[in-house]
Structure to design on (293 residues):
């Protein structure tokens, strides 16, 4: 399946860490930096609930000639530290960590691409007075999170299985992430490998703290989660990318986002649910066009 120009696979990121603070102590957040470290034009890309920074490899390679692209592993995921208190795995802590990261980058303004949870973090940060976010891309995220999606995600989040091989783990990732839409075998293998950690006994596990599920499950309401006041406080130009089959971001919510708050531009991607991976050239082009507008 030809999806257009391929990214330059020879371009690799620099892995760095920044020390952040919480009410339970200090923790280190890992991040991957692409492009010229002196470039003042910074693009921050933040992943979904149980994913990691390397989800953005293709997007970062495609855009790092124009931006200094920074992709953090949110606390408890990937190479970042696990938090001492699992109840801190929530948007307020993540926003605080991102403010610390932006201070480390020594820039006043950033553009932001956030998938699902990463979009909610970006929305919360963009809603703050004097926010550093100047352009915001919400990838299948918005001020209403559908109850059905919350329940679906809660069924697998934090189960902490062990796998005898990468291939076995890939079958689970393909099943969980089927809403991502069509991907090649190589792309599914990449989406799997970046999530895994090999244990001493030779088996593999997902590379995140399973305790991230504790506050998540406690916060699932009887209905949808709604944070319209946060959305209405956002002032920067905003793009909403919605998988047309998404069970998390409804079409009605996405359309309402075009009418209130920052009055976002909306793009829907057919044949995709929650959430587009932004790995393919057509999706990357949508992000590039908006950021450069």
């Amino acid at each position: 399946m030809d999806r257009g120009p391929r990214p330059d696979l020879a371009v690799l990121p620099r892995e760095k860490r920044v020390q952040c603070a919480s009410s339970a102590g200090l923790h280190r957040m890992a991040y991957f930096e692409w492009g010229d470290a002196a470039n003042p034009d910074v693009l921050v890309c933040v992943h979904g609930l149980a994913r990691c920074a390397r989800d953005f490899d293709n997007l970062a390679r495609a855009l790092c000639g124009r931006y200094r692209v920074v992709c953090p592993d949110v606390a408890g995921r990937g190479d970042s530290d696990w938090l001492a208190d699992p109840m801190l795995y929530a948007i307020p802590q993540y926003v605080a960590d991102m403010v610390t990261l932006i201070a480390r980058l020594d820039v006043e303004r950033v553009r932001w691409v956030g998938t699902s949870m990463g979009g909610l973090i970006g929305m919360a940060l963009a809603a703050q007075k004097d926010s550093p976010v100047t352009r915001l891309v919400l990838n299948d995220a918005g001020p209403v999170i559908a109850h059905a999606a919350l329940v679906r995600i809660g069924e697998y989040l934090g189960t902490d299985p062990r796998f005898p091989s990468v291939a076995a783990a890939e079958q689970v990732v393909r099943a969980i992430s089927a809403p991502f839409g069509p991907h090649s075998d190589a792309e599914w293998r990449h989406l799997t490998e970046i999530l895994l950690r090999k244990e001493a006994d030779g088996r593999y596990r997902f590379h995140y703290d399973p305790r991230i599920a504790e506050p998540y499950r406690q916060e699932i309401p009887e209905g949808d989660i709604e944070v319209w006041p946060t959305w209405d406080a956002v002032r920067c130009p905003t793009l909403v990318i919605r998988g047309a089959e998404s069970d998390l971001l409804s079409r009605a919510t996405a359309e309402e986002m075009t009418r209130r708050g920052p009055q976002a531009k909306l793009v829907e991607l057919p044949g995709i649910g929650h959430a587009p991976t932004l790995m393919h050239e057509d999706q990357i082009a949508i992000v590039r066009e908006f950021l450069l507008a």
Notes: The first helix runs from residue 57 to 63.
